[in-house]
Amino acid sequence: MKFFLKKFSFLLLAVLFITSCEEVGPSINIEPPMRKVIMEEFTGVRCTNCIDAHIKTEALLDQHGDNLIVISIHTGFFAGPLNESIQDFNTTEGPELDAFLGPVSSFPSASINRQLFTGEDGLVLGSSKWAGYITSELSKASPVALAVATSYDQSTRELTVRPEITLFQDITDPVSITVMITENNIIDAQLSDNGTIPDYVHKHVLRDVLTNVEGNPLSGTLVANSPLQEQYTVTLPEAWLAENVSAVVSVHYPSPNYSVLQAEEVHIVE
Description:
The chain is built from 4 helices and 15 strands.
């Protein structure tokens, strides 16, 4: 009997010891990310007023860092090129974006996250309104986490863009993805009030759109915590400097509510 009690006591102590030593992991609360902002700016090499807007844009980028993504779309009468221009910044998609987001009636102007803000008549806004609406959009949480991987083959100049979209909640409405290619720090002509500037530094220039300008519908099921992966490929023209090229991806609603849910910009050569 004593042996049984001792054995029982030993087993009881062992169970209590194991139970007391069981490691309990920390409670992890994954918060949705804050929303990044895409600013689609309509500009042109013949637009003398756009120079001041470019300065304002760079100040906004200095203020907000990687949370603000700028795409400069050269289209319309002011897109040029000039007699002194080395390159033509017009694209097939420029007029399509003008019609899709606009029509653009004045330059410079820009769409902020493709959002129709209360009290505004359209998506495209004058430069005096950019700062306030950018700050407003940056204060919002996003239901989407977006990661973008790129691979670039220097010999073939082939670029592959691989977005991965993870939702933090189920979304029943259709959602689209847009993939754009931009090039930064292009030295070329720009018209100013004092004549042509031959060595102007053009930034964030739209070079190509790998989807439809209004976006491609996401093909997977929009269920929380079920990542969706997409892939897009393009061959860069020789005139583009790969070290200045970026892939810009946005996830957004389609027509008639174009609001951007999340965006990301990745430099293809680090």
